[in-house]
Amino acid sequence: MTEFRIHQCQCPECKQPGEQASKVLHHQMNLYLSRLDEQQRRWYVALEAKKLGHGATKRLSEITGMHINTIRRGKRELEQDLAEHPIGRIRALGGGRRTVEKNT
Ligand SMILES: [Zn+2]
Description:
This protein has 104 residues and is mainly α.
């Protein structure tokens, strides 16, 4: 499956009928999440959970459909300055091997 499925928010507010502002916001959060890779999703949701404070991890789990433990993991990773996810890890080792052509 290459098609992105945008998660439908399951929070109590969005389940109520009517036009709540949070419905639009939660939809847009899930829309944004659908464009991120797995790590980015985790960190974004973790950041939102941190902003909202107490009880937010559970709420963010309802909004995004992300597992509560995944959000907790994201929060831990942020607290550790993403130490295990450095920028440019792919080219961290060696300086690249030069192809040497021998003239024989
Ligand atoms: Zn919602």
